[in-house]
Amino acid sequence: MPTTAERQTTRRRARRPFARPRPDLEGRARLRPLALVVTTVIFAATLLAGMLVGSADLPVDGVLKALADRIPFVHVDSGLGVIDENVLFELRVPRALMAALVGGMLAIAGAGYQGVFRNPLADPYLLGAAAGAGVGATMVIVLVPGDPGYGVPLAAFVGAVCGVALAYALGNTAGRGGDGTATLVLAGVAVSSFLAAVQTFVQQLKAEELQRIFTWILGGVGSADWHQLGLVAPYALVSTIVLLAHGRLLDVLSVGDEEAASLGLSAARVRLTVLVAASLATACAVAISGLIGFVGIVVPHVVRRLAGGSYRIVLPLSLLGGAAFLEVADLVARTVIEPGELPLGVVTAFVGGPFFVIVLRAVRRRVDT
């Protein structure tokens, strides 16, 4: 039987949840300014490189002045001609921003999934988001005559959300009374397999569209424009805010559900909120870029190695690091076989495949010891 003092301590914790987190969590949870500054500088450098690199040579000072001229109440003569300005603001800036948005969303979603499942191998496509997006995009490409325009990203977004919702509903129904997270993963695998079969069936209805379908599946940001960015930006912003706000709660979850409950935390509610936000971030990325793998595994793992394991650190640095990583991958994709262009998913797979093996071996050694 708990003593009176123990009961009073429990009641105080329930009234003031998270007021005094465990000392080891508090020590790990400080985001050092230097790490944030370095990551931000790297991201800014890769973003600028994405705007500079291309078939048309643009001067660095001209690009910087043109960007500064777009700041309200700032007027600078960039010296760029009309054609160069159109190349910069209609092609390169949207593409660089889209690569940053997609990379950031996939990385922060990966960190969120890994926090929920307590598994460094958890992936943004774990719960059927990729398979659902593939079905949605394939159906529009196959069934809509002519150029579907923005119908493909919209259908991919809806398909990704529906895929995750179906996996969660199935896992929630089957997992009552058991290990909810393990059941949810298995439900995601089952839903992904089923939706992949549906996608294959739809593809065969119009075999002449296979090239367009596989181009979308392999991923890329070459079709970026301001309208697409405007469509997904609000959802990306909401999911980012929610995930960043749950960094400390994920730290508490990492020490166990019982410890979290003693601090007044509803583990189930936190998991559901983070899953929804991470899935929304994944859907935003998949809708405008296609399927780009491994970003959500590589970036959070590197951040943990360099900056610590607290999710108050991992989430914001993964956001910036993922944006920088995909900027670099896009630069490689459009320069390595000039004048052609590699699918972005191929570039990330070249990096992520071996990296996944390294992470898998590290996890295996940790389990064995």
TrEMBL record:
<dbReference type="InterPro" id="IPR037294">
    <property type="entry name" value="ABC_BtuC-like"/>
</dbReference>
<feature type="transmembrane region" description="Helical">
    <location>
        <begin position="96"/>
        <end position="113"/>
    </location>
</feature>
<feature type="transmembrane region" description="Helical">
    <location>
        <begin position="125"/>
        <end position="144"/>
    </location>
</feature>
<dbReference type="GO" id="GO:0022857">
    <property type="term" value="F:transmembrane transporter activity"/>
</dbReference>
<keyword id="KW-0813">Transport</keyword>
<feature type="compositionally biased region" description="Basic residues">
    <location>
        <begin position="10"/>
        <end position="19"/>
    </location>
</feature>
<keyword id="KW-1133">Transmembrane helix</keyword>
<feature type="transmembrane region" description="Helical">
    <location>
        <begin position="272"/>
        <end position="299"/>
    </location>
</feature>
<dbReference type="GO" id="GO:0005886">
    <property type="term" value="C:plasma membrane"/>
</dbReference>
<feature type="transmembrane region" description="Helical">
    <location>
        <begin position="344"/>
        <end position="363"/>
    </location>
</feature>
<feature type="transmembrane region" description="Helical">
    <location>
        <begin position="34"/>
        <end position="54"/>
    </location>
</feature>
<comment type="similarity">
    <text>Belongs to the binding-protein-dependent transport system permease family. FecCD subfamily.</text>
</comment>
<feature type="region of interest" description="Disordered">
    <location>
        <begin position="1"/>
        <end position="24"/>
    </location>
</feature>
<feature type="transmembrane region" description="Helical">
    <location>
        <begin position="150"/>
        <end position="170"/>
    </location>
</feature>
<protein>
    <submittedName>
        <fullName>Iron ABC transporter permease</fullName>
    </submittedName>
</protein>
<dbReference type="Pfam" id="PF01032">
    <property type="entry name" value="FecCD"/>
</dbReference>
<feature type="transmembrane region" description="Helical">
    <location>
        <begin position="182"/>
        <end position="202"/>
    </location>
</feature>
<keyword id="KW-0812">Transmembrane</keyword>
<keyword id="KW-1003">Cell membrane</keyword>
<dbReference type="InterPro" id="IPR000522">
    <property type="entry name" value="ABC_transptr_permease_BtuC"/>
</dbReference>
<keyword id="KW-0472">Membrane</keyword>
<feature type="transmembrane region" description="Helical">
    <location>
        <begin position="311"/>
        <end position="332"/>
    </location>
</feature>
